[in-house]
Structure formats: C-alpha cells, structure tokens
Design brief:
The chain is mostly helical and 308 residues long. It has twelve helices and three strands; from the N terminus they run αααααααβββααααα.
Amino acid sequence: MSAKQLPLFPHEGEHALTRQSSVSEAIAPFQHYLRLEGCSPHTLNAFTSDLRLLCEYFGDELPLGEFSTTSLTRFMDWIEQGRGIPCSRKSYARRVTTLKVFFKFLRNEGVLPHDPASALVQRSGSAPLQPILSEEEIGRLLAYTLSLRLAPKPDARPDLLVRLLLDTGLKKSECMALTPDHIQRDDPSAPILIIRHRKPNDIYKERKIALDPDWLTVLDEYLEQYHPPETIFDCTARNLEYVLRDTATGAGIEGKVSFEILRWTCAVRDYQRGMDLDEMREKMGLSRISWRETSDKIIRLAALQARS
C-alpha cells in the first residue's frame, strides 16, 4: 500500500466502515485521520468529545448512512438550547466544525455517498480577531529591548525572546523546550531553527525555520550572561510572560505583548511580505484543518492593518 493509500484503520483486524457502521465505530479511524493531518492532542480530544455528544443525542445504534442535514441541524439546536448546559459561541462553532470535518472524512473515504454536514451553517458569527502589534509598536519594543542589552548591567534576555517570537512565531511550549542543539549554525549567514517534539509519534511535525543571523549575536550574549544548563530559557513559562509584560510596559505599550500576540504578529508580517500560505502553515506548525480558520484571520488582520 502506497503512502497515499493509507489504511482506514490504524490497527489490524478491524472491519472497514460502511453506511451501517455507528459513530462509535468511526471514532478510532477518524482519530487516526486527524493525527495524520497533524492535529494537536487538544483538537483531537475536543473533536472526540463532540462526537460522543452526537452518540449521546442519537444513541449509538443509528447507522452513519441515516444522518441527514436535518437531523444534524436538530442536534445542533439541542446543543445550543436543549441540553441544559450553556454553549458559548466558540464551542458552538467548533462543534459545527467537528461535524463538517467528520462527515467530509466519511464522504472522502467512500463510506457515505454524500456529506450531510456540508450544508450546516455557522450561526455564531466570526470569531474576534487577535490583537497584533503595529510596525511602530514593534519599533518601540525592539528599541527598548536593545537599550536593556546595552545598559550598564546588560540583560539580553528580553531582546532574545522578543526577536525570536517576532521572527519565528513559536508557541510558548515550543519556546520553553528549545535547547542550543535546536539551532543549526553551520552557515552563520543563514542559521536554521529546528523545532523538534519529544514524542516519537510527533516526528513528522518537526520543521525548520530560518533565523535572523543577527539573532545569534544576541543568543551568545544571553548564554554568557545566564549560563542555562540545558534549555535556552531556564525558567518557568510564567517568568517569561512577566518578561514580556515588563518589556511592554518599558516600551509604553502595556497589555499588548504576549506569546500569542507576537505569534499572530509574526504571521501577519510573513503574509504581508508575500510568504506562500502553505509555507506559512508549516512554519506555524498547524494542521490543514486548523489552518482554514487561521489563514482567514491572518488575511483579515493584514487588511485591517493596511487600512489603519
């Protein structure tokens, strides 16, 4: 079997899905599909939880082939109004997404002749856009971190952290896991950051991101000052959040600097510079499923910034 003809089930001995299979029987192969798509454990758990709600509402005996747009709409009405548990706009939107991804998967695998979830409407409205930094604010932020590097008691950590996040868009967890071995310095004019994951199953998620050569100078200053024994940032994630908060205060942009804000700022800047969308997705380490909504937000943010 070729790499493009992956088996429907991750384990041997399981029966192939048919129109008569139940939702419960489809969960394991659907999880396998999500892993192949590069979905995070959080996304996988959320989608699985949503499908178990589907089983709760319809019972576990309803065959996959008997689902219709009408019955799925009735299910979403129950989620929103009849379940007795508040459903936020964000949760509602995610559950609609779960149904769309799940039934599209079944349709693409030939289990169903049509996709009953394709006509479901997202009635919750667009999610709010993540705030990002303007170029003027970025300039003020970097000017302040540079002043800390050049102070009588120099501190390179704020400059190192801010530049890293602005250039790479790393997630907080990825930033905390970095070691000097993640940085390829064979060619000082074109250093590469390699994002590795500890779990063997996540090896296919490893990716390479180009670094600003000048960042290596800041890194060397930082290593000389802090002497971290293993990971580059030998402190808690909360401590780095305080570093970002204090840096924002010093630059006069209180409340506008965080891991998430710098990650989105990096993405919008990459888009404005003409980076290919698929290259951006790989740089951010997102699955194709997650990228659909994220890329739309990036494009909208770039358009808003262009008009401001």
